[in-house]
Amino acid sequence: MNYTQFPYSRGRRLRNSENIRRMVSENSLSVNDFIAPLFVIEGKNQKTEIPSMPGYFRFTLDLLLKEVDEIQSLGIPSVLLFAKVPDEKKDNEGTEALNPDGLMQRSVRAIKQEFPELVVMTDVALDPYSSYGHDGIVKDGQIINDETAELLAKMSVSHAEAGADFIAPSDMMDGRILLIRDALENAGFHHTGIMAYSAKYASCYYGPFRDALDSAPGFGDKKTYQMNPANITEAIKEAVTDEQEGADIVMIKPGLPYLDVVRAVKEAINVPVSVYNVSGEYAMIKAAAEKGWLNEENAMMEALLAFKRAGADLIATYFAKNAARLLQTPLLSRRDPLGKRG
Ligand code: PBG
What distance in Å separates the CA atoms of residue 341 and residue 77, rounded to the nearest whole number? Predict the structure, then answer.
C-alpha cells in the first residue's frame, strides 16, 4: 500500500478551513510590498478623476499632500511620482524636466518636508516633458540614445537634489543606469537609489496612463526602445545589465501578462524585483467590476497575490490604498478574498 496515494493522501485536508489554509499558504501579501503611484498637476485645490482609471485621481500639490498623508497612515512605505506637464512647457529636449522649481521637484520637496520617512520615488523619462511624447530626444524621426541618457542623468540629479530617495528611470535607453549612478555619485548622492524599469515592454496596457498625463507619442510607437512582448531572454539580459550598472531594484512592466518574466528575472539576479501593475490592468478590473462581471476586491487581491507567487518583492499598483485597507481588516472577520469555504 502506498500511503502517499489516495485515500491516505488527500489534498483537500489542507484546504479545509480558513485557518488551515492560512497556515499552509505559500505566499502572502503585505502592505510593505506596495508602491503607490501618484499623478500631480499644476494649480490649487483640484482633484480630477482620470476617465479611463475610475476611482484614480490627479491632484494639485496641496491636495496631493492630503492623499500622501492617507497613504502613509495606511502603512504604505513608498510613493512613485509622475508630473503632468502643461503643453506650453513641453519641447523636444524636455527642458522643463531640469527646472529646479518644476512641478516634480516642488512635489518631492513638499512631500519630503511633511513626510520625511516616506520613500519618495520619481519617474525619470522625457515623455511627459516631450513635445513628441517620446521618452527620448527626437532627431530625424529617431529617438536618440546617448544624448537622452545624459539628459536623464541630469534629471536624476535634479530629483535627488529635491530629496528623492529613489530614481525610477522608465525610458529604456541603453546605458542610462550607469550614467545615472555615476552622476549621482559625483554629485554626492551616495544614498539615492535607482529602481530601474529594466524590462519594460512596448505594451498597449499603458493607454490609461497616457490619458492621465496626456503623454501619448505624437508619431510612431515606442518599439525601438521598449521591448517586444515576445521576448524573455532579452528581459533577463536587460535586468542583469542594469544590476551590473548599479541598479538597486529592477522592475518588470507591465505585470499580469508578464508573470513568467518576473519569475525568470527573480531567479537570475540578486537585487529586489518589483513589478508594475500598470494602468490598463487596473482599468480592466475596474471595467469588469463596473459591469458586475467580476468582484473587484477579489480580482484585485488575486492579481496582487499572483505577483508575489511569481517572485515579485515589490508591487507598484493603483490598488495600493484599497488593498492596504483590506489587509488591515482582521482576516477572520472579513470575507475570504479567494472564495468561501465549501
Ligand atoms: C513613461 C511611463 C509610462 C508608464 C510609466 N512611466 C508610459 C509609457 O511608457 O508610455 C506606464 C504606467 C502605467 O501604464 O500605469 N515613460
Answer: 33
Residue 200 phi, psi (nearest 5): -110, 120
Q: How far apart are CA 33 and CA 12, in angstroms?
A: 30
Is the Cβ–Cβ distance between 69 and 76 less than 8 Å? no
How many residues does this entry show for the chain? 342
Q: Which amino acid is at 162?
A: A
Specify the ligand 1 atom closest to the Cα of 125: 16
Ligand 1 cavity residues, CB under 6 Å: 123, 125, 127, 135, 170-171, 206, 209-210, 278-279
Question: What pLDDT is recorded for position 342?
Answer: 38
Report the amino acid identity of residue 10. R
- Residue 99 is classified by DSSP as -
Q: What is the DSSP string of 36-76?
A: EEEEEESSSS-EEEETTEEEEEEEEHHHHHHHHHHHHHTT-
pTM of the model: 0.95
What would the mean pLDDT of 278-307 be, rounded to a whole number? Answer: 98
Q: What are phi and psi of 272, to 5 degrees?
A: -60, 145
Is residue 339's pLDDT more than 70?
Answer: no
Using DSSP, state whether 280 is helix, strand or coil.
helix
For 294, other C-beta atoms within 10 Å of its C-beta total: 17
Catalytic residues: 200, 253
Structural domains in the chain plus CATH codes: 17-329 (3.20.20.70)
Helix or strand (DSSP H, E) at 240 = helix 233-245
| Residue among 52, 81, 38 nearest 208 (CA) | 52
The owner of cell 522649481 is 101
- pLDDT band at 1; cut points 50, 70, 90: confident
Which residue of 132, 152, 206, 227 sits with most ligand 1 atoms within 8 Å of its CB, as the best mutation to test the pocket? 206
Q: What is the mean pLDDT of the chain?
A: 95
- The residue whose CB lies within 8 Å of the most ligand 1 atoms, and thus the one to mutate among 50, 85, 209, is 209
The grid cell for 192 is 539615492
Which is nearest to 316 in space by CA: 134, 111, 82, 99? 82
